[in-house]
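User: Can you recover a sequence for this backbone? Please restate the input before giving your answer.

Assistant: Of course. Working from this structure:
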């Protein structure tokens, strides 16, 4: 589709069980948008989709995805929302981000503010989880997907379909038991999410849905301090209070939750950001500006220009003529200028006056034709995959190629890249096999030398043969040497049992005694060692050893 309603379709950016999400462009307001189209013919699914538009459209808050429009296109309902470049919180958690306590608290506080506002409008989200939280490039957090939400004072007969481990893990005990649930059910889900953001692991992990439900209902999570040793004790108390199985012992509201999180941040973070929603009404504008500026300066120093720019926009909303804020904001814009999509995001989500003379050129630099954008993304993917192959990261190269073909469709270079990955893998396997074969032959050669010098025991030979087999199962030299070694041992044992051998052994003993009588214990000792090696153990050895030792002492005296 080129258009949905009045909106131009630029790209497909996601899909689910019943809906597809496109990146679109509003030609009248001249801004990017996200268009969610419901393809399901199921009546209940369509009702849920319409309810999402109805509920989310009433929630206007900086931490909740804004809904712009709702309509029908070829009998298919569609929902138009603000376009949110960035990543889902689930992806950041998999990469073990955010990293610092300050960044983690910033994410948790923004979610609590957005959720608190929804609750103040009597809306229960009912599906709080990392994949429904979007982190923008500026650091702002947005709660998404109100498809399962309901009004607190309205009963809903719509069921939730598509239950998966990823959904059940965040449901409160009362919801799993089918009991009436209120806003504090969202707070349990928030506790699961908070535990995961802080420790990068879920408090409840099950092999399947029944096992997971049993854990949520009956098991206590591992203490947060054990999963994340750097966790401040007061923060662990906050999260575990949210995870209480009894709804009445959780926080009464997100406002109470936010206050405790603010206190943790004040106690443990050097640069606390003033909370714009929960800050006391008695706080003066000057104090707010000072806090925002302090945090913005710190972010600029750490190179996080987009997040700093978002804070500076708030400063300029309060004080449009603030000189330092203007200077820092200009520096942040310049630092992020090459990122056109980031620039577009800032331009559309911040109230900034643009002179009429520059509007046309600005919009031209922001907007990009769908095919041009696709070709640019393909070129970026080809370059990235090539670098992975050159550095030997073939698994990463294969994953990147799969991702590119899934979201960009088939492209001419895909086959060549796939063959390049396969050929490189084969070459690496061949190289490793050749090296292993060479090492196996080297070990077999060492075994042969040791046997020739009568220094190879059967036990050592067995260990070396196992090593050869692990390197090259087809290399038989080591096994042949081991078999020959067994034959040597058998022949030696037979020789030791023959009468002729007994006669020679007796001659050796007499020679050793003669050397002792002649006063040469050193030579006698060497002769004894040779006899043991030649004839094996025999009864006279202890007696001869004692005589040699006595002779050595007498010689020293």
């Amino acid at each position: 589709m080129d258009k949905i309603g009045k909106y131009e379709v630029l790209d497909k950016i996601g899909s689910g069980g019943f809906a597809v999400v496109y990146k679109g462009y509003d030609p009248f307001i001249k801004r990017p948008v996200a268009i969610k189209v419901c393809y399901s013919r199921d009546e209940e699914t369509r009702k849920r989709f319409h309810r999402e538009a109805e509920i989310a459209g009433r929630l206007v808050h900086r931490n909740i995805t804004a809904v712009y429009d709702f309509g029908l296109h070829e009998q298919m309902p569609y929902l138009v929302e603000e376009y949110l470049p960035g990543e889902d919180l689930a992806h950041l958690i998999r990469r073990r981000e955010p990293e610092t306590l300050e960044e983690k608290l910033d994410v948790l506080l923004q979610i609590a503010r957005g959720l608190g506002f929804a609750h103040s409008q009597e809306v229960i989200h009912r599906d709080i989880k990392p994949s429904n939280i979007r982190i923008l490039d500026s650091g702002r957090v947005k709660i998404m997907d109100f498809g399962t939400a309901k009004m607190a004072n309205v009963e809903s007969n719509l069921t939730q379909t598509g239950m998966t481990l990823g959904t059940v893990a965040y449901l409160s005990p009362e919801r799993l038991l089918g009991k009436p649930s209120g806003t504090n059910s969202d707070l349990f889900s928030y506790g699961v999410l908070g535990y995961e953001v802080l420790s990068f692991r879920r408090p409840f992990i099950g092999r399947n849905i029944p096992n997971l439900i049993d854990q949520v209902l009956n098991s206590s999570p591992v203490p947060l301090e054990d999963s994340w040793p750097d966790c401040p004790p007061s923060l662990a108390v906050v999260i575990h209070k949210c995870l209480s199985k009894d709804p009445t012992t959780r926080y009464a509201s997100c406002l109470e939750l936010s206050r405790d999180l603010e206190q943790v941040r004040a106690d443990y973070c050097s640069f606390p950001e003033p909370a714009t929603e929960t800050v006391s009404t008695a706080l003066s504008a000057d104090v707010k500006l000072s806090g925002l500026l302090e945090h913005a300066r710190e972010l600029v120093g750490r190179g996080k220009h987009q997040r700093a720019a978002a804070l500076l926009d708030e400063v300029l909303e309060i004080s449009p003529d603030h000189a330092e804020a203007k200077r820092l904001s200009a520096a942040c814009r310049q630092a992020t200028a090459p990122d056109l999509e980031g620039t577009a995001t800032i331009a559309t989500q911040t109230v900034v006056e643009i002179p009429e003379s520059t509007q046309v050129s600005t919009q031209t630099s922001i907007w990009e034709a769908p095919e041009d954008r696709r070709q640019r993304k393909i070129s970026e993917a080809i370059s990235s995959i090539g670098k992975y192959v050159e550095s030997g990261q073939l698994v990463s190269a294969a994953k990147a190629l799969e991702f590119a073909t899934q979201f960009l469709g088939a492209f001419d270079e895909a086959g060549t890249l796939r063959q390049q990955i396969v050929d490189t893998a084969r070459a690496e396997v061949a190289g490793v096999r050749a090296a292993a074969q060479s090492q196996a032959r080297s070990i077999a050669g060492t075994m042969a030398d040791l046997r020739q010098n009568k220094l190879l025991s059967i036990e050592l030979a067995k260990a070396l043969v196992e090593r050869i087999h692990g390197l090259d199962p087809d290399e038989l030299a080591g096994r042949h040497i081991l078999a020959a070694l067994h034959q040597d041992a058998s022949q030696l044992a037979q020789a030791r049992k023959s009468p002729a051998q007994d006669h020679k052994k007796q001659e050796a003993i007499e020679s050793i005694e003669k050397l002792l009588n002649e006063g040469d214990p050193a030579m006698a000792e060497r002769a004894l060692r040779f006899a043991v090696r030649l004839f094996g153990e025999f009864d006279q050895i202890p007696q001869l050893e004692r005589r040699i030792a006595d002779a050595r002492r007498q010689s020293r005296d």
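That completes the design. Residues 155-162, 272-284, 338-368 have pLDDT under 50 and may be disordered.
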